């Protein structure tokens, strides 16, 4: 996990290098996350307490439904950010009122890849993750924007929904988009896909 953590930090440092606020997209139920929200990881057996964003007053305490927001807070380490949790009933916001030029999507792929994973093993999990990783590597925003998020839910994948939102936002960009996968691993039977997208302005 240390190798994955280091690679994730390098990718987030790259994202934050221009110094612009980052829009964080994760799965969850709260919609727009209050700026400066205090994040409590106690529900996951951790003592970590983070804050989304920096430079402003500490907001209300929030216990994220999925760990993606906590991971984002940890990796951003105080960098200015705004958060959106995408619920199972909310696949896209037609007129998002947040900046979408710098986006961090945090979530895990399927969690049913093998015995001992958080969910009982499902033979569809690995093909699902492989296909998702391929679309991400190819920066195929059109395909990702219409991904089968119901299947993702069955596989305990909390990445596909926020990724679909990000892909639809990216599809609005005026310049071509490229992508690459830095790492694709499955520690503890949970898929972790670390990747970057960028435009050719």
What does this structure look like?
This protein is α/β, with parallel strands linked by helices. The chain has one domain (2-199): Protocatechuate 4,5-dioxygenase, Chain B, CATH 3.40.830.10. Helices cover 29% and strands 21% of the residues. The protein has 6 helices and 9 strands; from the N terminus they run αβββββαββααααββ. The strands form 3 sheets. It has a 4-stranded mixed β-sheet. Strands 4-3-5 form a 3-stranded mixed β-sheet, covered by helices on one side. Strands 8-9 form a two-stranded antiparallel ribbon. β3 (38-40) and β4 (49-51) form a beta hairpin.
Summary tags:
201 residues; alpha/beta; Protocatechuate 4,5-dioxygenase, Chain B; four-stranded mixed beta sheet
Summarize it:
This protein has 201 residues and is of the alpha/beta class. Helix content is 29%, strand content 21%.
| CATH-derived architecture | 3-Layer(aba) Sandwich
Strand order of the largest sheet: 2-6-1-7
DSSP summary, beta strand count: 9
Quickly count the helices.
Answer: 6
Q: How far is the first residue's CA from the last residue's CA? A: 35 Å
Element-level helix/strand string: HEEEEEHEEHHHHEE
Q: Strand share of the residues?
A: 15-25%
Helix content: 25-40%
Largest sheet: 4 strands, mixed
What's the CATH topology label? Protocatechuate 4,5-dioxygenase, Chain B
The number of domains: 1
CATH superfamily: LigB-like
């Amino acid at each position: 996990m240390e190798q994955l953590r280091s690679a994730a930090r390098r990718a987030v440092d790259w994202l934050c290098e221009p110094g612009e606020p980052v829009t964080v997209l994760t799965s969850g139920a709260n919609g727009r996350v209050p700026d400066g929200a205090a994040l409590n990881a106690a529900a996951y057996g951790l003592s970590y307490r983070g804050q989304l964003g920096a430079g402003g007053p500490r907001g209300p305490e929030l216990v994220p439904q999925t760990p993606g927001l906590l991971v984002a807070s940890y990796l951003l380490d105080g960098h200015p950010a705004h958060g959106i949790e995408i619920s199972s009933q909310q696949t896209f916001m037609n007129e998002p009122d947040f900046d979408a030029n710098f986006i961090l999507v945090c979530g895990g792929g399927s969690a049913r890849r093998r015995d001992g994973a958080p969910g009982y093993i499902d033979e569809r999990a690995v093909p699902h993750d492989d296909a998702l990783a391929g679309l991400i590597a190819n920066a195929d925003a059109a395909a990702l924007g219409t991904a089968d998020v119901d299947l993702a839910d069955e596989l305990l994948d909390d990445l596909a929904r926020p990724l679909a939102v990000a892909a639809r936002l990216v599809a609005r960009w005026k310049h071509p988009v490229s992508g690459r996968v830095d790492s694709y691993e499955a520690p503890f039977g949970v898929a972790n896909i670390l990747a970057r997208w960028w435009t050719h302005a």
